[in-house]
Design a protein that fits this description.
Distance between the termini: 24 Å
CATH architecture: Alpha-Beta Complex
CATH class: Alpha Beta
Order of helices and strands: HEEHH
Shape: globular
CATH topology: Nucleoside Triphosphate Pyrophosphohydrolase
Oligomer: single chain
Number of helices: 3
Structural class: alpha+beta
Number of strands: 2
Strand order of the largest sheet: 1-2
Strand content: 15-25%
């Protein structure tokens, strides 16, 4: 997840954030849609993408940023959701929208 820079296209932001926070680059990007985080409360929207065909590179974290990467198979991910270890709405929405591409 990341903030759009002024005049930045959502896909370019997704590519930048993936590289900065995980070190990964993707050769294929599938747009999954846009979701409203809190309709009626604010006008924030999130643009969701599935990144595929990944290659590892270098991270570029902000000095005050700490990121801990975790790796899951799809069955492990579904179990983590069932156990409420993963429960943020953006992750759940993105996984639901990505399911047709993951089977």
């Amino acid at each position: 997840a990341g903030k759009l820079d002024p005049n930045e296209e959502p896909l370019n932001c997704a590519k930048r954030e993936l590289a900065e926070e995980t070190g990964y680059r993707a050769n294929q990007w599938i747009p999954l849609g846009t979701i409203a985080t809190s309709p009626g409360f604010c006008n924030e929207v999130l643009h969701l993408y599935l990144a595929k065909d990944l290659t590892m590179g270098e991270t570029n974290w902000d000095p005050d940023e700490y990121v801990e990467l975790e790796y899951f198979t799809l069955p492990e991910l579904l179990e983590a959701i069932k156990a409420e270890q993963i429960k943020d709405s953006k992750s759940l929405a993105a996984l639901m929208l990505a399911m047709p591409y993951l089977k």
